[in-house]
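ERR on first pass: missing label on line 2. Operator R.T. fixed the label and resubmitted. Corrected input:
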Amino acid sequence: MKVAFIGLGKMGSGMARNLLRAGHELTVYNRTRDKTEVLAGEGAHVADSPREACRDAEAAITMLADDGAVEEVVFGANGIAGTLHGVHVSSSTISTAMARRLSSAGHDYVSAPVFGRPEAAEAKKLVVVAAGSHEVVERCRPLFDAMGRVTFVAGSEPWQANAVKLCGNFMIASMLEAFSEAYATLRKAGVDPHLFLETMNALFGSPVYANYGRIIADEQFEPAEFRVKLGYKDMRLVLATAQECSSPMPLASLVRDHLLSALAKGQGDMDWSSIARVVAGNAGL
Amino acid sequence: MKVAFIGLGKMGSGMARNLLRAGHELTVYNRTRDKTEVLAGEGAHVADSPREACRDAEAAITMLADDGAVEEVVFGANGIAGTLHGVHVSSSTISTAMARRLSSAGHDYVSAPVFGRPEAAEAKKLVVVAAGSHEVVERCRPLFDAMGRVTFVAGSEPWQANAVKLCGNFMIASMLEAFSEAYATLRKAGVDPHLFLETMNALFGSPVYANYGRIIADEQFEPAEFRVKLGYKDMRLVLATAQECSSPMPLASLVRDHLLSALAKGQGDMDWSSIARVVAGNAGL
Amino acid sequence: MKVAFIGLGKMGSGMARNLLRAGHELTVYNRTRDKTEVLAGEGAHVADSPREACRDAEAAITMLADDGAVEEVVFGANGIAGTLHGVHVSSSTISTAMARRLSSAGHDYVSAPVFGRPEAAEAKKLVVVAAGSHEVVERCRPLFDAMGRVTFVAGSEPWQANAVKLCGNFMIASMLEAFSEAYATLRKAGVDPHLFLETMNALFGSPVYANYGRIIADEQFEPAEFRVKLGYKDMRLVLATAQECSSPMPLASLVRDHLLSALAKGQGDMDWSSIARVVAGNAGL
Amino acid sequence: MKVAFIGLGKMGSGMARNLLRAGHELTVYNRTRDKTEVLAGEGAHVADSPREACRDAEAAITMLADDGAVEEVVFGANGIAGTLHGVHVSSSTISTAMARRLSSAGHDYVSAPVFGRPEAAEAKKLVVVAAGSHEVVERCRPLFDAMGRVTFVAGSEPWQANAVKLCGNFMIASMLEAFSEAYATLRKAGVDPHLFLETMNALFGSPVYANYGRIIADEQFEPAEFRVKLGYKDMRLVLATAQECSSPMPLASLVRDHLLSALAKGQGDMDWSSIARVVAGNAGL
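pass 2 clean. output:
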């Protein structure tokens, strides 16, 4: 397929590369042009604006930082709205409200956020969650297959995929909070967090637990895998979705507050697992 | 070794059987005698009281419901205190305060609570967390090896193992709360919880998530794997430990409150994952 | 002074009347015209639009339901922006973000939200909290004096008054939550909530406690003094302000969740003190 | 009446003095004898033990620090159980569980905890909450009238009065939490807490708000009116009562956690309103 790919950050670069590898014809755009060079060397065309990138595209994939960035790329001065004839595939982690707005931009639209870190994006191991009308989702399936190891379809309304993505990030954040509280208590009980981590690895057998459990046990919050700022944004967004649905999520509020504390204490660029520091501080550690 | 095993509930029966299989000489005691018969057929001696069971024992293992039951078996009229010459191994999920009391009963003492369900006990797949003086823990290691697939040593004070066990149950309870909140929001968003569960299985890759995530998605809270009553007890105990350590655990308080609500609504004998019903109710479901 | 008054709901009518009584020349506007009639009979001019109302006004006071209504009256088709030469006094309970937007509408601006119920508005017993540049606040002081029993100046930035108003409503909401929890426990302990209320009246000596404590003890949530919908909006707004300030407010989140539950259970038009019903429900009552 | 008064701390001294003033014949006992001297000078007999103090007493009033102190005085070596022929009036702030235990000590028993600070005790301005069998409560009424400005009867089971007392302290603690959160947000918004306090005084009109609101605005947490240690104890006790009643109190858990944090940070001897420091810390202040 002829694909425009907009947003070549750590995640986007890997995703774009896998589209090229799968034989799709790619035109890329990034706000700072230097990030496009490697992909150009691998066969991608480079465009000067989102609008130019999507001119002949059957699909335009956006992988951007937040609602604001997506809004600019879609509805801004050189945005894709009005030019794109194909389908817009939004893989960014955005609000369900923004997804609804993108649904009504005048072109076909699919939300297809992804789970996975940059290494997983590079290795075609992402988990894709798509939602939208059946026909449009199926049309995009070759793209999802090129970028991820598995694709789940959340429903026929695009924003439902974003709800799933946000709730998934909430699941991870809850695990961070749980580790933070358990470690704080155990440290005060004289038990080594690493001993507890080994036990939890034996119990849960999950690489996500192993990875974040180790970061927190080591208190190695820099460099960040996923920054407090972004985690805070996601918890705000999941709470916004929950409120749209009239569904209280007290645990999400608790984690949001600890991320907000981390922000207030200057930890915005640390890994979001550094809420452990806030929790430990509340225990006098 | 000559071993007394006291408490032949679902967990204890499997553990005792694996001790027999490993060649230990077992004397068993259970409050209701009928549960001893199968093990008697497999070679265990049967005693009429804890005291009698432990008379010649090198080790007495207790696997009982709660603090009260352990107190009775150790300090009660026919209890083991004063008679036992070997080491007392407490595998029950009890409070850290009770563990400290058991430490000073006049015989050697090790806390060795276990993670795993009855099937895991039967299949010698338990995770054992032991704590106590190095020499005594090592003396008991053949017993741990006979009952579990792996043993972790939490520290030199027995109650530290109980702190680890309680914090581990808290980790599971936190996951239940997270699933409950995510499912409630997604149900109101028109997304099938099973779709979310599949996504989380792809993300976390944990059998614990797969198991409890399915129970909650199916809303199949009976028969209980682990009852609300017991989960509530454990959350009370982890909070008691946290307070001994001056370490706030707000997520543990949140889960405790949802378990308490479940109790108040008559769900005491349902699976503890039925806090999902409380959470869904708060969303008007 | 020549004053435009926009928004003649329960609160606005009383406030406008007191401005008339104090000798100010009043032009009123309300979306539904019938509410203007009584005031017309008392000497007010009636305008057909906000813009017309404010044409010669030295001050335009708005007392409206929410951010959206204020936005429409200020920036909408027949809005006051561009026409008003005097100062805009916003007495509505709005977000701090909206207050900042109103500050930059091109005319002088003061936030002056009020505390008090409709009877207090009628009886000139409101508490006024004003903020804005010193000169502009002082120019409006005769208006505040005409409408309230006391005026506090929160700061030189208008939105600071809205922060105070929202935090004040949060203080009341916290009291509702506290009563709800105490009553639920005491009812289950067989103690009459009215007995507790009398005790609290002796202890706190506050008419606010007496009023809301009675409503909750009587479980008389209709007709509403202040609806769940509005209370929920205010808790959302105070949390938005708190997040702008990077200041976690876990108690505000807790109350927000109980109001959201009340909404989800169909209590949107009951008094906001009906969070007591949510709390009691969680205790199995 | 012939009255034994046991426990001459800040509260007890004032209460005992008012009993003397009202013409009752008083025998006092205190663990450290020097505190008995002033009252001896005012006409009280001094005993060497609780048992001796209550030998001929029609009523024995205990006003002690906690469950442990009351247990010692009642059931200890020189305790009143077995000797007292009159009624035991427990005015201490104790657990509902301890109150039930005192009910079955073999003599008549009334729980009569009080609200008010030492100055109020001295000035006969306490609020008394009594519970017990009607006949016994009425027999003690002259004593209540001598010590307080008003007496409320909570029920026929003594522990119900303790439930009311604990819930009353929870109401105050909730107010502390609410002030703490509002002040933190407002300080970060550049608003002087004292301005907010004045507004709240105009709104609530409560001396309790005025007093604690000022302490927190001034951040003057020493000397303590009521120490963090004691506040923490009371929140633990109200949560214990709530759990006996299967009634979740999430706000009580929140405050308990902030008091626990304060303890962990070394604020145990500061005023309990110093939870404001924990809350401010979480906002990065």
